[in-house]
Write a structure and sequence with these properties.
158 residues; alpha+beta; Lambda Exonuclease, Chain A; 6 strands; 31% helix; globular; EC 3.1.12.1; exonuclease activity; iron-sulfur
C-alpha cells in the first residue's frame, strides 16, 4: 500500500508533527507521556455512556498534570478554533487536570493557548445527548476535506 493511498498531505503533515513532538522524554522538568488514553462513565438517566479520549501528550511533574493537544493548521487565522478548545476542555475533565495547552503548528509559526477551565460533567452530558440526537457524522463540512472516504460517502457535506 502506498502512503498516498492512506494519507492526504494535511493528515500526513499532522502525523509527522505528532511523531516529532512525541519523541521528547522530558520538557522543562516535566515527564512526557504520549498518546494517553482516558475513560469515564456518565449517567444519562436510563443509560450509562462511556466517554473515551486520547491526549496527545501529558506533562507530569509531582502532582501537576498538563494536557497538551497538538494541532496543525494551514494558517493563523481564527486560532484557537472553538472545537479544539472544547476538545481540550473535555480532556481536562476526562484526565482530572487543571491546565491544558493547545499547541498549533502552522506554516508561519508555533503558537500555544493555555486552557484552565475544564468542562463540567453536566456540560459533557449535554454534549453527548445533543450528539446522540444529531446525525452522527460529519458535523462540519471541513471534516470531509480530511476524510479519505469522502469520495464515496453518502453523507458528504459541501
Amino acid at each position: 500500500m502506498a502512503i498516498a493511498e492512506v494519507y492526504n498531505p494535511s493528515t500526513l503533515m499532522g502525523e509527522l508533527i505528532h511523531m516529532g513532538l512525541e519523541t521528547f522524554n522530558e520538557i522543562e522538568g516535566y515527564k512526557v507521556t504520549s498518546e494517553v488514553e482516558g475513560e469515564k462513565e456518565v449517567n444519562l438517566g436510563e443509560k450509562v455512556v462511556k466517554i473515551k479520549g486520547r491526549a496527545d501528550i501529558i506533562l507530569q511533574k509531582d502532582e501537576e498534570k498538563i494536557i497538551v493537544e497538538i494541532k496543525s493548521a494551514r494558517g493563523d487565522k481564527g486560532l484557537p478554533h472553538r472545537h479544539h478548545l472544547m476538545q481540550l476542555q473535555a480532556y481536562l475533565w476526562l484526565f482530572g487536570a487543571k491546565k491544558g495547552i493547545l499547541f498549533y503548528v502552522t506554516p508561519e509559526r508555533f503558537t500555544e493557548f493555555t486552557v484552565d477551565k475544564p468542562l463540567d460533567e453536566a456540560t459533557i452530558i449535554k454534549l453527548v445527548q445533543e450528539n446522540i440526537s444529531l446525525s452522527p457524522s460529519p458535523r462540519f463540512a471541513w471534516e470531509c476535506e480530511y476524510c479519505v472516504f469522502s469520495i464515496v460517502c453518502p453523507n458528504k457535506k459541501k
